[in-house]
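We modelled the chain as a single entity of 326 amino acids. Its sequence is:
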Amino acid sequence: MADAVSSCILKVEDLKVEFPLGGGVFGNRRIVHAVNGVDLELRSGECLGLVGESGCGKSTVALSIMGLQSPTGGRIILDGQDIAAPGIDRRERARVAQIVFQDPYSSLNPRQTVRKTLEAPLRLHGIKARSEIDDRIAEVLARVGLRPEQGRRYPHEFSGGQRQRVGIARALILKPKIIVLDEPVSALDVSIRAQIINLLLEMKDSLGLAYVMISHDLGVVEHMSDRVAVMYLGRIVETADWETIFTRPRHPYTRALIAAIPDPFGTGIGAKIPGEVPNPIDPPAGCSFHPRCPHAIDICRQPPTPDLEEIDGGHFVRCRRARDFV
């Protein structure tokens, strides 16, 4: 883990993303609260892991940061600029932040060679000189462990791990400060995952990159993250440094997620989180986790939703009973 982190390069404030659904029988408008008031900070040179079950809103947060999803409310301050404000040039955002998608095959154009894929963003951002383009492409391919001559190939000519290396190269080509990693190894064979994780960690240290890593695989998160934010039903329910999250979690949902990690030395099956994720159209009153929480008491069921409270230095928890879990 990198110990030294510096200034805040990304700040998400009260981010909301809502999706309206068609009116019901009487024309009532229904709203899916995909992201419901998320606050995050990312510092230069660190990796922030954003975790939670499928449908919790973590990928929607990632897409909002990248400008691929329009927020309903809140602010996204990227390198000092509010990129959620109207009229922001997407090219300016691309110079600072890039994304690596989960599936390296579907995220690459099958009709373009790797060279064309890497050349396009350079030309879009005003780099025209052939020598500079050649140098940048050769440099970034070498950085991800590929040879310059492999730039003449098409995506189908690569293995899954090599395609993800191409995806990482594309994210690097404009020399961004932040890379959003959306489940970067979940589509890869187990034997390849460690190689890609080690590559990402090496680049983080050598290039001073900051990562927002979206993942449901807590083993990967534990290995890569400096800090971790846990999402449930569109909200952050706990955030702290990685060691605190994995050794001293305070929110019952975080504790359940960690208990669900498969035991590699036992059955290989973790404990299943009881119940189902509530409907985001009509979230529960009070603590949104209370219908599934074995520790819920009457106050947990009462509105309003608990605030995210700092219980130790840098350790924030959204739970009325957080101090009971030591």
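As a brief sanity check on the tokenised model: Residues 290 and 297 are 8 Å apart (CA to CA). The chain has one domain: 8-324.
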